[in-house]
Amino acid sequence: ELEIGLEDWYNGIHPEDVDQVEPKFETFLQSGDLDWNDEYRFRRADGSYAYIQDRGRKYFDESGTPTRIAGAMVDITERKRSEKLLRQSNERFERFMQYLPGLAWIKDSEGRYVFANAAAVKAFRTTLEGLYGKTDDEIFPPETAAQFKESDWQALTGAAGFLMVETLEHEDGELHYLAVNKFPIPSPDAAAPLIGGIAIDITESKRTEEALR
Hints:
By secondary structure, the chain is an alpha+beta fold. Helices cover 38% and strands 31% of the residues.
């Protein structure tokens, strides 16, 4: 139902998107680019807006002058809605993990760290960049790494996970006691499971027990 020309098309773009789409398209018209591709909201005939993927291609006459653009709009509203829900779910997971009163991390089946909250990164005395993709052997002293790898193995071989007390030297230079729960996380694509871990520092409790004894 669009009229010939650009004005009717521009008028159909959502008011919050038109200021990004129009300059981008004008730049495309003046450029040597052949293909156009963008995503934005566009008004349907009933007045509601749909997220669409807009793709087009320039066509030229014999002198090389662009004469027209042929393209198509594809409704991607459901995809955008799914992406938003997934993004919100990931954000909730991140907030939950960061505010968890303790350490939390996830490793892949090869023992490489793929997630850690701020408390874990601090206790491990590293950075996210220095942790992700690395194994315990690359992060910790040999005795500490061996301790962690052994409990990882026990967690993977037990469907209900594995509870234990582990020790780790923190940035204060002292040996801390951690109550650790490690557990397998099934992969949705039938790949090898991940290894999840949550730990609470119980150093003060251990010191109190020793003092009572």
